[in-house]
Amino acid sequence: MSLxxxxxxxxxxxxxxxxxxxxxxxxxxxxKLIAIIGGVFIGALFYMQSQSTISVEWSKLQSISESALSSxxxxxxxxxxVSSITTNLGLPLTGGFSAGIILGLAKG
Length: 108
Description:
The protein is mostly helical and 108 residues long. It has 4 helices and no strands. It is elongated, with a radius of gyration of 21 Å.
């Protein structure tokens, strides 16, 4: 192994780590916002139903949310995409990016 490639690998891993951190931080903030909006929406439904303003079919709402969450989880667990990214971009880039995303999600 040549010592000439070490600085470029560190630069690649560092810049990918920074980009991953920013993306992970943004993902966590967006997910918090979505959770707050969803909670306020469900709370408003409970309140309006208790005031007899609306009638909510909770079983239908549950089945719709379960199907939506299962389709999202199925699309996020595809390993073919991850293996092709690792193969095409290289270990320093994907390693730095994934470490950055984990840190961004932890700090966000």
